[in-house]
TrEMBL record:
<dbReference type="GO" id="GO:0016226">
    <property type="term" value="P:iron-sulfur cluster assembly"/>
</dbReference>
<protein>
    <submittedName>
        <fullName>Glycine cleavage system protein T</fullName>
    </submittedName>
</protein>
<dbReference type="InterPro" id="IPR006222">
    <property type="entry name" value="GCVT_N"/>
</dbReference>
<dbReference type="InterPro" id="IPR017703">
    <property type="entry name" value="YgfZ/GCV_T_CS"/>
</dbReference>
<dbReference type="InterPro" id="IPR029043">
    <property type="entry name" value="GcvT/YgfZ_C"/>
</dbReference>
<feature type="domain" description="GCVT N-terminal">
    <location>
        <begin position="27"/>
        <end position="231"/>
    </location>
</feature>
<dbReference type="InterPro" id="IPR027266">
    <property type="entry name" value="TrmE/GcvT-like"/>
</dbReference>
<dbReference type="Pfam" id="PF01571">
    <property type="entry name" value="GCV_T"/>
</dbReference>
<keyword id="KW-0809">Transit peptide</keyword>
<dbReference type="InterPro" id="IPR045179">
    <property type="entry name" value="YgfZ/GcvT"/>
</dbReference>
Amino acid sequence: MSFPGAVPPPDDSTDAGVAWHYGDPFAEQRSAARSVVVVDRSNRGIIAVPGEDRLTWLHQLTSQHFELLGEDAGTEALILDAQGRLEHHMVVANVGGTVFLDVEKVDDLLAYLKKMVFWSKVEPRDATAELALLTVVGPDAVAVLEKLDLPVPADVVALGEGFVRRRSWPGQSSFDLLVPRAELASWWQRLTDAGARPAGSFAFEALRVESLRPRPGIDTDERTIPHEVNLIESSVHLNKGCYRGQETVAKVHNVGRPPRRMLLLHLDGSADGQPETGDPVELDGRVVGRVGSVVQHHELGPIALALVKRSVPVESELVAGAGERQVAARIDPDSVPADTPGLGREAVRNLRG
């Protein structure tokens, strides 16, 4: 928040401590789509896991196949409860003999990891005070990195004590830089001097919602399973060995279907209010879903992610919000995910046929 022009977020924002915007959040979104921006995401938690057993240990605890993760490689992973419900999501980088976990919140996850160490040769610690995250987004992101003589990785590459990591979203050209927190201001200056426009969480969240990427605790609730929020492809290895919650993951993937789907809703922009996280989504007066992230997009207008019962027809005329926040809403058909393969269902049909 010490960067020039930074406007602080509202008091109830989940992104306290970083800039909401720098004077024109819609222009910041346009720059991310057409040129390049840099976003201060130093409010993200960082857990470092050094130790020779780090990959086999994390393999046992998470949904991801860490034993196949090489050096200078990244992925995403989940920790689920025994019923397969989402507890933690982490963005992963294995670099320099340490696995770094980029997470929404550190405390509960770190406590769980420390509890599970036993005799493994690992030393998980909170590295948030040591390292900070910056994200460079836009078609000119590569040019900015090259101008600063920084590596342009296909996956992850070491950068001093941290790394540069290619992101799969938003857009086709996005990178994370994990830098020493003590050098955060100097890195920000270098990136903006190289041509990256400062952008805040307002813009980044709009791009995240457009990309159909869930944020734990906002787009998820206590019942959410990975299939409902598009996390199977990025965060779950379907052929690895046993981990907590695996039975639910396999059953839904092969036999069942998730009871809800995370969808993009287009909201009525002419209304005075807008729904908030946790508000209901209704069809003909019946609750059929839950509102997650609500943002203002530079092209799409007011949009939201919502967990909606899979039985709700895509063409339905919905109402999102509560009380004076109720607005008309419609489902973006392009946000409807493909069904799980249902290999078990197909096998049963073949037997009956």
